Amino acid sequence: xxxxxxxxxxxxxxxxxxxxxxxxxxxxxxxxxxxxxxxxxxxxxxxxxxxxxxxxxxxxxxxxxxxxxxxxxx
Length: 74
Description:
Layout: H1 7-23, H2 42-55
């Protein structure tokens, strides 16, 4: 079994890394899973979810017919 990333997966990975670097607030320190809905973190969580959705990355495995990316359907 080959566990290496394909060229397409490498390209996508690089795109995501670049996007995150450019889109997250400069002072963002990260949050725990439980804290993402906390009052202080909630605005960033909402903003990032909307941006991910606009890129089609919020629902990567969902079929395109239901507004997903269809990335994991073969």
